[in-house]
Amino acid sequence: MVVAAKRPRTFEVVFHDPNKRFYCSGDKVSGNVVLEVSETTAVSAIRVLGIGCAKVAYSKGKQKCRDEVEYLRYEEEVHLDKRDGNSSVTLTPGKRYEFLFGFELPGPGRLASSHEGKFGYVRYYVRASMETASQHAFQCERRFEVEEPLDVNTPDLLAPATASTVKKVTCMFIPDGQVSIAAKIDRKGFCEGEVIAIDAKFENTCSRIVVPKAAIVSKHTFLATGRNKVLRQKLCSVRGDHIISGMGDVWQGKSICVPKLKPSLKGCDIIAVDYALMIYVHIPGSEKLSVELPLVIGTIPYCGINSRTNSMLSYASAGGSCVSFPSAPPSYSNIQRELGADNGLTPLLDDYEQDEDEEEEGGLFMRPPVAPYPPPPPPPYSEVDEELRCRTHPVQAV
């Protein structure tokens, strides 16, 4: 028997549905382990492992912070047709061998969605290992995505969110008025592409010109060895008009669109991804004043019909058919010029007698005038000052 330690020509994991974007709790993950050897090889075992884990690793000073949580562990030994009591099976080159595998993911609440972050990740993959009679082992693996459904139609996420704050401004330790914010949104749960309508009130009694703004921010939290590391990032923003001293501003449905985002990560023990709507005021020479309204980015979109946001989107998708625009103005060629008229007014509509067809149509229509001659050309262009010409060449009375 010839035993080879060379790497197989083909050794890979192929899923039955390679176009599937992600799996959910309770789904079945199945496929084949495809194997082609380059030389005659004695294989003693082929094992398939389904693994899902979250890992966090970062440095805080001189301390190395690491942690790991396992969410999936499945192991299966592929059946090999061993004959005559042999401890291995012989594979020959030129043939394609496929070994079937399959397993079910745990039920709802036991998995965390896939995530890739700067200091940690949540990954799921299928790993296949082949053991030969010469104790050489070869491995291959293929990752798959898990996305737990997150419904934004729950009562908690449909409840409105409000916040308010006031800041007293000083100049050289002398009181200089104050700036206040009061903000509200209709609900907390949104999905990618939806529009958030912001209601807010700003008041400025200080001597400076302030600018109100709003932004969607993300907050990534990584936990390891009792410590945490937080990363914040501004994703998109809108701004309002300047507010001068003694004045205020009111936002009624100020819109900001949710960009393409990963859903909120709630089911992981060591990694959390949260979102918030930050409404703030930029104050020159002082720290900004801000409030944050919690947001949850889900996977199942809002299905209500009474929301102002939903009605705006429905109206936009319908094309706004109830809005009528005025027609274009008539051409100058359709206007009759009566140069010899005593008054300076030129009628735009002609009196006419309605025919039977026109009476059926109803309404008042613009009609092109019937002139016996074409309209006169415009006056010639001249750069001579008429007032100066009259002074140098006075007109003599006859």
Quick structural summary:
With 398 residues, the protein is mainly β.
What does this structure look like?
The protein has about 400 residues and is mainly β. It has two domains: about 10-145, Sandwich (Immunoglobulin-like); about 155-315, Immunoglobulin-like (Sandwich). The chain is built from four helices and 18 strands. The chain has helices at about 155-160, 310-320, 355-360, 385-390; strands at about 10-15, 30-35, 40-60, 65-75, 90, 95-105, 115, 120-130, 135-145, 160-170, 175-185, 190, 195-205, 210-225, 225-240, 245-255, 270-280, 290-295. The strands form four sheets. Strands 3, 4, 5, 7, 8 and 9 form a six-stranded antiparallel beta sheet that branches. Strands 12-18-17-14-15 form a five-stranded mixed beta sheet, with no helix packed on it. A four-stranded antiparallel beta sheet has the order 10-11-13-16, covered by helices on one side. A hairpin with a 2-residue loop joins strand 10 (about 160-170) and strand 11. It is elongated. The N and C termini lie far apart (about 135 Å). Residues about 305-330 and about 330-370 have low confidence and may be disordered.
Strand content: 35-45%
Q: Architecture of the largest domain in CATH?
A: Sandwich
Q: What would you report as the Rg, rounded to the nearest angstrom? A: 38 Å
Count of DSSP helices? 4
The poorly predicted ranges are: 306-328, 330-369
The structural domain count equals: 2
As a percent range, the share of helical residues equals under 10%
Q: Any idea of the CATH topology of the largest domain?
A: Immunoglobulin-like
Average pLDDT over all residues: 81
Give the overall shape. Answer: elongated
